[in-house]
Amino acid sequence: MSGSKRGASFEDLETVPPHRVGEIVDGELYVSPRPAPLYARATSRLGMLLGKPFDLGEEGPGGWIILSEPELHLGNDALVPDLAGWRRERMPEMPHTAAVTLAPDWVCEVLSPSTAVLDREKKMKAYGREGVSHLWLLAPLQRSLEVYRLEHRHWER
Known about the structure:
By secondary structure, the protein is α+β, with helices and mostly antiparallel strands. Helix content is 21%, strand content 37%. The chain has a single domain (35-156), classed as tt1808, chain A (Alpha-Beta Complex). The chain has helices at 37-55, 116-129; strands at residues 2-6, 20-25, 28-33, 64-68, 71-74, 77-79, 83-87, 99-100, 106-110, 134-139, 144-151, 154-156. Residues 10-156 form the Putative restriction endonuclease domain. This is Putative restriction endonuclease domain-containing protein.
């Protein structure tokens, strides 16, 4: 991952090669590699596990929209979480745009050596600032899941 440009704008994302992920956090453009198979598989499996009961309502409560790697335009930030979810009462219809401008209710970042610092530090702060109420950090190599809830603008475990 590289923080390559200060004062970045959404137009700068168009210069990012398709085999990379571009994000803007606090005005800085970060370009990361696409997830390696281990991390992509962890994301896919979690998406499948949550999708049935929460998104599709099969053997679960339903009421959520769960997306894999959505591009979020939140204020001046452009974030791409590994998974994100919105309660349908807040987002009753899917946007017809490439980027979603409504902050999700939940995000999950799958931590890899190339993205862990960005995910834990800058992106976590940005999600809190934008009012995302739940954040999961999944670390496949460590086989761990950290669960956070936003309380009074601070993350609590």
